[in-house]
Amino acid sequence: MEIQILGPLVLARSGRTATPTAPKPRSVLGLLLLHADQTVQATALTRELWGASPPVSAPTTLQTYVLQLRKCFAALLDVPVAEVARRVLVTVPGGYLLRVGPDEFDLRRFEQLASAGRRALAAGDHVDAAALLVRACALWRGPALADVRAGVVAGPRLKALEETRLATVEQCIEARLRLGHHQDVLADLTLLIAEHRLNENLCAQLMVALHRSGQRREALAVFHRLRASMVQELGLEPSKRLHLLQQAILTDDRALEVAPREDGLTQLLDHLVLQRARAR
């Protein structure tokens, strides 16, 4: 079985799909998958579907939606609905639990690959880190549960998941920068910054990548666009670290040319701060 939520919802097996089509059963399945292998209280499912004003029939209607989902799994797995109720989508005290194998769920694979990639990056194994993190990021086909209506319960979890995705993308780019793949990350960073214009870390990564690719003017333009947006929209200046990175690019500071395998972006910015403090 193949279950995908890192993009549109997909429930498939051997080329056959059994993804529910009705909006509310899809919302129930989405919330169960966001908390796979954990109990999801019936009260949480009710709030997800109807907010603070559920109908009197909510408990019965929720049971009907769960039965519809069990039928989807039964059709996909070629087993009786009763077996799905015992082994897959289980009724537990107070709610329901959806059991999902780690190899059949894209969110689990993402979490495993991202975790392994972070460990490799921390250990200085940038080749493995880049490979693992690239695979993790490639599992995403768009926003999580892109075609499922998110309610008050799923919304915060989806927001946290998107933040995890962005952090993983940043770590992936960091690993590739340490390998010297500066030109290779330019397109990815440009697209990311179009979506996250005020993200200082992404802008710093793009500034370094452009500078190390011989595009000093473009690197400085990234800083000026970020500063203009922050001042206009937030009334704030970029951080001291970003200002120091701009100054380092203006003066062609040799610290920017440190061998990429030896120095990541965080260490580079820390070095610039320390260097400035010593100069005072």
UniProtKB/TrEMBL annotation:
<dbReference type="GO" id="GO:0006355">
    <property type="term" value="P:regulation of DNA-templated transcription"/>
</dbReference>
<feature type="domain" description="OmpR/PhoB-type">
    <location>
        <begin position="1"/>
        <end position="100"/>
    </location>
</feature>
<dbReference type="GO" id="GO:0003677">
    <property type="term" value="F:DNA binding"/>
</dbReference>
<keyword id="KW-0238">DNA-binding</keyword>
<dbReference type="Pfam" id="PF03704">
    <property type="entry name" value="BTAD"/>
</dbReference>
<dbReference type="InterPro" id="IPR036388">
    <property type="entry name" value="WH-like_DNA-bd_sf"/>
</dbReference>
<keyword id="KW-0804">Transcription</keyword>
<comment type="similarity">
    <text>Belongs to the AfsR/DnrI/RedD regulatory family.</text>
</comment>
<dbReference type="InterPro" id="IPR011990">
    <property type="entry name" value="TPR-like_helical_dom_sf"/>
</dbReference>
<dbReference type="InterPro" id="IPR016032">
    <property type="entry name" value="Sig_transdc_resp-reg_C-effctor"/>
</dbReference>
<keyword id="KW-0805">Transcription regulation</keyword>
<feature type="DNA-binding region" description="OmpR/PhoB-type">
    <location>
        <begin position="1"/>
        <end position="100"/>
    </location>
</feature>
<dbReference type="InterPro" id="IPR001867">
    <property type="entry name" value="OmpR/PhoB-type_DNA-bd"/>
</dbReference>
<dbReference type="GO" id="GO:0000160">
    <property type="term" value="P:phosphorelay signal transduction system"/>
</dbReference>
<dbReference type="InterPro" id="IPR005158">
    <property type="entry name" value="BTAD"/>
</dbReference>
<protein>
    <submittedName>
        <fullName>DNA-binding transcriptional activator of the SARP family</fullName>
    </submittedName>
</protein>
<dbReference type="InterPro" id="IPR051677">
    <property type="entry name" value="AfsR-DnrI-RedD_regulator"/>
</dbReference>
